[in-house]
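Whiteboard transcription, Tuesday session. T.W. wrote the C-alpha coordinates on the left side:
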Protein backbone atom coordinates (compact mmCIF):
# COMPACT_ATOMS: atom_id res chain seq x y z
CA UNK A 1 0.00 0.00 0.00
CA UNK A 2 1.23 3.50 -0.69
CA UNK A 3 0.14 6.90 0.48
CA UNK A 4 -1.27 9.00 -2.32
CA UNK A 5 -0.30 12.40 -0.90
CA UNK A 6 3.29 11.37 -0.20
CA UNK A 7 3.66 9.69 -3.60
CA UNK A 8 2.03 12.58 -5.47
CA UNK A 9 4.15 15.21 -3.71
CA UNK A 10 7.33 13.25 -4.50
CA UNK A 11 6.27 12.90 -8.15
CA UNK A 12 5.77 16.66 -8.38
CA UNK A 13 9.14 17.35 -6.78
CA UNK A 14 10.82 14.87 -9.16
CA UNK A 15 9.18 16.65 -12.09
CA UNK A 16 10.66 19.92 -10.80
CA UNK A 17 14.19 18.55 -10.36
CA UNK A 18 16.68 17.51 -7.69
CA UNK A 19 15.70 19.11 -4.36
CA UNK A 20 18.86 18.04 -2.46
CA UNK A 21 20.51 21.47 -2.30
CA UNK A 22 17.28 23.14 -1.20
CA UNK A 23 16.68 20.61 1.58
CA UNK A 24 20.16 21.05 3.05
CA UNK A 25 19.91 24.85 2.75
CA UNK A 26 16.73 24.66 4.82
CA UNK A 27 18.39 22.35 7.34
CA UNK A 28 21.42 24.61 7.80
CA UNK A 29 19.19 27.69 8.03
CA UNK A 30 17.33 26.05 10.92
CA UNK A 31 20.55 24.97 12.66
CA UNK A 32 23.86 26.21 11.20
CA UNK A 33 25.83 23.89 13.51
CA UNK A 34 24.60 20.87 11.53
CA UNK A 35 26.51 21.94 8.39
CA UNK A 36 29.85 21.14 10.04
CA UNK A 37 28.85 17.48 10.36
CA UNK A 38 29.12 17.08 6.60
CA UNK A 39 32.62 18.55 6.36
CA UNK A 40 34.02 15.35 4.84
CA UNK A 41 31.29 15.02 2.23
CA UNK A 42 33.08 16.94 -0.50
CA UNK A 43 31.20 15.38 -3.41
CA UNK A 44 27.78 15.63 -1.76
CA UNK A 45 27.26 11.88 -2.25
CA UNK A 46 26.60 11.22 1.45
CA UNK A 47 24.00 13.99 1.63
CA UNK A 48 22.32 12.81 -1.55
CA UNK A 49 22.19 9.22 -0.34
CA UNK A 50 20.94 10.28 3.09
CA UNK A 51 18.09 12.31 1.62
CA UNK A 52 17.17 9.38 -0.62
CA UNK A 53 16.99 7.08 2.43
CA UNK A 54 14.93 9.63 4.39
CA UNK A 55 12.43 9.90 1.53
CA UNK A 56 12.19 6.12 1.20
CA UNK A 57 11.55 5.93 4.96
CA UNK A 58 8.78 8.51 4.56
CA UNK A 59 7.19 6.43 1.79
CA UNK A 60 7.42 3.33 3.94
CA UNK A 61 6.02 4.94 7.12
CA UNK A 62 3.10 6.32 5.14
CA UNK A 63 2.65 3.14 3.11
CA UNK A 64 3.80 -0.45 3.50
CA UNK A 65 5.34 0.07 6.96
CA UNK A 66 7.79 -2.74 6.27
CA UNK A 67 11.08 -1.34 7.61
CA UNK A 68 11.08 2.43 8.11
CA UNK A 69 10.48 2.53 11.85
CA UNK A 70 13.24 0.04 12.62
CA UNK A 71 15.64 1.69 10.18
CA UNK A 72 15.07 5.09 11.81
CA UNK A 73 15.49 3.65 15.29
CA UNK A 74 18.81 2.08 14.25
CA UNK A 75 20.00 5.22 12.45
CA UNK A 76 19.19 7.45 15.43
CA UNK A 77 21.65 5.35 17.46
CA UNK A 78 24.27 5.19 14.65
CA UNK A 79 23.98 8.92 14.05
CA UNK A 80 24.37 9.74 17.73
CA UNK A 81 27.89 8.32 17.43
CA UNK A 82 28.51 10.80 14.58
CA UNK A 83 27.47 13.66 16.87
CA UNK A 84 23.97 14.01 15.40
CA UNK A 85 21.47 14.87 18.15
CA UNK A 86 18.30 12.80 18.01
CA UNK A 87 16.23 15.97 17.69
CA UNK A 88 17.93 16.56 14.35
CA UNK A 89 15.82 13.82 12.77
CA UNK A 90 12.65 15.88 13.15
CA UNK A 91 14.63 18.91 11.97
CA UNK A 92 15.61 16.99 8.83
CA UNK A 93 11.98 16.23 8.00
CA UNK A 94 11.11 19.85 8.78
CA UNK A 95 13.76 20.88 6.24
CA UNK A 96 12.35 18.47 3.65
CA UNK A 97 8.86 19.88 4.23
CA UNK A 98 10.03 23.50 4.09
CA UNK A 99 12.00 22.93 0.88
CA UNK A 100 9.18 21.02 -0.82
CA UNK A 101 6.56 23.62 0.16
CA UNK A 102 8.81 26.38 -1.13
CA UNK A 103 9.54 24.58 -4.41
CA UNK A 104 5.91 23.67 -5.13
CA UNK A 105 4.40 26.97 -3.98
CA UNK A 106 0.62 26.90 -4.50
CA UNK A 107 0.88 23.27 -5.70
CA UNK A 108 1.84 22.27 -2.12
CA UNK A 109 -1.63 21.17 -0.96
CA UNK A 110 -3.08 20.85 2.56
CA UNK A 111 -3.19 17.08 1.94
CA UNK A 112 0.54 17.04 1.20
CA UNK A 113 1.22 19.13 4.32
CA UNK A 114 -0.87 16.83 6.53
CA UNK A 115 0.70 13.62 5.19
CA UNK A 116 4.25 14.96 5.64
CA UNK A 117 3.43 16.29 9.12
CA UNK A 118 2.38 12.76 10.13
CA UNK A 119 5.66 11.32 8.82
CA UNK A 120 7.65 14.02 10.59
CA UNK A 121 5.87 13.40 13.89
CA UNK A 122 6.39 9.65 13.72
CA UNK A 123 10.07 10.09 12.82
CA UNK A 124 10.50 12.49 15.75
CA UNK A 125 8.92 10.01 18.16
CA UNK A 126 11.00 7.08 16.88
CA UNK A 127 14.30 8.97 16.92
CA UNK A 128 13.69 10.24 20.45
CA UNK A 129 12.55 6.89 21.84
CA UNK A 130 15.22 4.96 23.65
CA UNK A 131 14.10 1.45 22.86
CA UNK A 132 16.95 -0.34 24.54
CA UNK A 133 17.85 0.92 28.03
CA UNK A 134 21.27 2.53 28.08
CA UNK A 135 21.60 2.86 24.28
C1 LIG B 1 15.65 10.38 8.29
C2 LIG B 1 16.77 10.71 8.84
C3 LIG B 1 18.10 10.16 8.39
C4 LIG B 1 18.43 9.03 7.67
C5 LIG B 1 17.50 7.96 7.13
C6 LIG B 1 19.86 9.05 7.51
C7 LIG B 1 20.59 8.09 6.82
C8 LIG B 1 21.93 8.16 6.57
C9 LIG B 1 22.67 7.23 5.75
C10 LIG B 1 22.07 6.02 5.03
C11 LIG B 1 23.96 7.63 5.73
C12 LIG B 1 25.12 6.98 4.99
C13 LIG B 1 25.21 7.68 3.66
C14 LIG B 1 26.42 7.26 2.84
O1 LIG B 1 27.50 7.08 3.40
O2 LIG B 1 26.26 7.15 1.60
C15 LIG B 1 24.05 8.81 6.56
C16 LIG B 1 25.23 9.50 6.81
C17 LIG B 1 25.30 10.65 7.55
N1 LIG B 1 24.28 11.30 8.18
FE1 LIG B 1 22.34 10.75 8.15
N2 LIG B 1 20.37 10.15 8.12
C18 LIG B 1 19.32 10.85 8.68
C19 LIG B 1 19.39 12.03 9.39
C20 LIG B 1 20.54 12.74 9.63
C21 LIG B 1 20.59 14.03 10.27
C22 LIG B 1 19.39 14.78 10.78
C23 LIG B 1 21.91 14.40 10.30
C24 LIG B 1 22.50 15.67 10.85
C25 LIG B 1 22.16 16.80 10.44
C26 LIG B 1 22.69 13.35 9.69
C27 LIG B 1 24.06 13.36 9.52
C28 LIG B 1 24.77 12.43 8.82
C29 LIG B 1 26.20 12.48 8.60
C30 LIG B 1 27.14 13.55 9.13
C31 LIG B 1 26.53 11.37 7.80
C32 LIG B 1 27.92 11.02 7.29
C33 LIG B 1 28.54 9.98 8.15
C34 LIG B 1 29.95 9.67 7.68
O3 LIG B 1 30.83 10.50 7.93
O4 LIG B 1 30.12 8.62 7.07
N3 LIG B 1 21.81 12.37 9.29
N4 LIG B 1 22.80 9.12 7.04
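and on the right, the sequence the group agreed on:
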Amino acid sequence: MSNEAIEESLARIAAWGDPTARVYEALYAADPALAALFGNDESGAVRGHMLYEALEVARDLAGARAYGAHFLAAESVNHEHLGVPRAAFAAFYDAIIAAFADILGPAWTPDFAAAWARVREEARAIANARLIPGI
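Someone added at the bottom: Residues 34, 37-38, 40, 46, 49-50, 53-54, 57, 75, 79, 82, 84, 88-89, 92, 123 surround protoporphyrin IX containing FE (CB under 6 Å).
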